[in-house]
Specification:
42% helix; alpha+beta; 13 strands; single chain
């Protein structure tokens, strides 16, 4: 009959009492008595990460074995749980239970260099470590999200490289200074650029920068024949009535300075009529088909004003044409270009902004966006022209003037 034994728990067990259990990775050894074991521990007792590190070396005449509890080849079970081993005393038939350390002994071949730890692993960011955990233990949904994010990251890096290469090619072709000039010009004109007349900065003469045919096509100019003839036949008394009733000063100045005869008189009279329609349009909120009927406005001119200077909106289920704030800027730019052609490439901004009902600073910004030179007439010339106060003039000269963009933080009213 088998003898019975009892378990005895060792109280207040010291570290030296811990049992060491080893396993050899290349199999079971036949002659263990020929091995000399040496046990090492880390001398840094103050470091909580290093004070528990242990190293076990087994040496023989033929081969040496090394095991530890802190590198990649160690058994991970040492960190997850505690092991115990029972030592049986055959005389007293009592088994003492001790703490145990497990070591995986790996052979060390002479001349073989141990693999160095990857330095990049120590420099991993928190995101990289989380991604590694997701790859090892994450759910399918997390793994798909990780794969999608990495693909997007690769695509973003490829796009950035392509954009950088394209930008460098443009810089090499045009030069950095030329690009800076274009950028400053674009920033200065960015707000009003969509509302300016077509510009030809490479023109050889000032009258070709903003072509007259871009303001009024030959067909539209011919349609103004009847209305222009009426304007040309106005007497000084009719002009005085217009002045007393608060007529537009820009139109009155054109009619007062009509050439005596010839094509120049016809052209200025037709432009004066068209300018009166633009100045009337800018004071409206909604454009209707009845616009210009009192002035016998041709249908082709009416359609041009509706398509070019209004914005279509839906109100109460109806399509309406609204004269928005942005259209005020467009009307101002086209009026200014028209006055330049009528005034030998010079226009009075002070009179124009009063007729338009906008601020002087706004009309000056429009003139700067068009590349015009701003100036004030001499005191003697201003008195001769009948101007008691100083008027601001805009002149078109070649090359066009490039203004530096304003670097202020003033809030501007958003254009619709």
């Amino acid at each position: 009959m088998d003898a019975k034994c009892s378990l005895v728990c060792c109280e207040e067990e010291r570290e030296a009492d811990q049992a060491v259990i080893v396993q050899f990775s290349n199999g079971t050894l036949q002659k263990t008595d020929q091995l000399d074991f040496t046990f090492y521990k880390n001398v840094d007792e103050n470091n909580p990460r290093k004070k528990s590190r242990r190293l076990l070396v087994a040496e023989s005449d033929r081969l040496s074995y090394v095991g530890n509890n802190f590198e990649t080849g160690s058994l991970k079970c040492n960190n997850l749980c505690r092991y115990y081993v029972g030592v049986l005393n055959k005389e007293t038939m009592k088994m003492e239970v001790h703490n145990a350390l497990l070591f995986n002994m790996q052979p060390v071949i002479p001349g073989e260099i141990a693999p160095e730890a990857d330095p990049s692993s120590n420099n991993q960011t928190y995101r990289d470590k989380v991604d590694s955990l997701i790859e090892a233990f994450g759910s399918n949904k997390q793994k798909r999200a990780l794969t999608s994010r990495r693909l997007n990251q690769v695509g973003s890096e490829t796009l950035q490289q392509a954009v950088a290469k394209a930008a460098q090619n443009v810089i090499d072709q045009k030069g950095l200074e030329a690009l800076q000039d274009e950028l400053s010009q674009t920033q200065a004109q960015s707000e009003f650029a969509p509302y300016l007349p077509p510009c030809h900065p490479d023109a050889t003469s000032p009258d070709q920068v903003y072509l007259f045919d871009d303001l009024l096509t030959p067909v539209e100019y011919s349609a103004l024949e009847a209305a222009g003839s009426k304007m040309a036949t106005l007497s000084p008394e009719d002009l005085q009535k217009m002045r007393d009733s608060g007529g537009n000063q820009c139109v009155l100045q054109l009619l007062t300075r009509l050439p005596s005869e010839g094509p120049a008189r016809v052209r200025q009279a037709r432009c004066a009529y068209y300018l009166s329609l633009l100045l009337k349009l800018v004071h409206l909120k909604m454009f209707t088909r009845r616009f210009g009927q009192e002035e016998d406005c041709p249908r082709i001119i009416q359609n041009k004003l509706m398509k070019s200077f209004t914005v279509e909106t839906f109100n109460n289920g109806r399509l309406q044409n609204m004269v928005s704030t942005s259209m005020h800027v467009k009307v101002a730019a086209y009026c200014l270009a028209l006055l330049l052609h009528m005034g030998h490439m010079t226009a009075d901004l002070t009179v124009l902004h009063r007729d338009l009902g906008i601020t002087e600073s706004k009309i000056q910004e429009v003139a700067k966006s068009m590349g015009l030179k701003l100036s004030r007439p001499a005191r003697g010339k201003a008195k001769e022209a009948g101007h008691e106060d100083e008027h601001r003039l805009a002149t078109l000269e070649l090359p066009l003037v490039k203004y530096e963009p304003l670097l202020d933080n003033r809030k501007r009213k958003k254009m619709r």
